[in-house]
Amino acid sequence: MTRIASIQKISKTYKQGGKRIEVLNHLSMEVEKGETLAILGQSGSGKSTFLSLLAGLDHPDFGSICINGQNLANMKQEELARFRSENLGIVFQQYHLMSNLTALENVALPLELQHQKEVDARARKALEWVDLSPRLSHLPSELSGGECQRVALARAMVTKPSLILADEPSGNLDGKTGKEVMELLFKLCKENEQTLILVTHNHELSQLCDRSLFLRDGKLLNSP
């Protein structure tokens, strides 16, 4: 199999009230292309911090993060932004949609930032993937929570990135809606042959993944 991500001995600390809090401690991990991986851990264990490092939104104090053979630590902010837009799709718990843009415009935005062709047609197709074609002209305030997360999925998928990072994507949804959104996420990743790293506290969701790792005491373990 082809390795899509290699994380080697990364550490991350934060200052809090004059003290240094160690969140990640010489953490290492390998991820193969097409794999679905769940990262589990208690609240405050550093799951979201880890995902932000993988996304290049923050930097580790030590260690290396290589995605698609490229070391994020060697990139400047402009290079990181371009790399992120071309290689990563990110799905947040809070949706992070642009409130003044319609569903179609939100999904089209990554394509426009990449100066892609056929932006409108591709954005419409992505909304078809998530069964939202009838709602493409609606603003986020006119959509339900489940519909907003479907728009966020379409936005993350529209450029067909090789790696999808998802941070508690069903955390703000009721059980039934959350299950539907997660089933859709797994279905799209499989169809598009995308790798998925899912941060969750939900053990039932983690069982849908090829494997699970547990974040505890700053390290990733094979068992809780």
Question: What distinguishing features does this structure have?
Answer:
33% helix, Rossmann fold, 224 residues, 10 strands, alpha/beta, 6-stranded mixed beta sheet
Structure, explained:
With 224 residues, this protein is α/β, with parallel strands linked by helices. The protein has a single domain, classed as 3-Layer(aba) Sandwich (Rossmann fold), CATH 3.40.50.300. The protein has seven helices and ten strands. The strands form two sheets. Strands 6-7-8-3-9-10 form a six-stranded mixed β-sheet, with helices on both faces. A hairpin with a 2-residue loop joins β9 (211-216) and β10. α3 packs across α4 (119-129) and α5 runs parallel beside α6 (175-191). It starts with a strand and ends with a strand.
Output the CATH homologous superfamily. P-loop containing nucleotide triphosphate hydrolases
Number of strands: 10
How is the main sheet built? 6 strands, mixed
- Helical fraction: 25-40%
Percent of sequence in beta strands: 25-35%
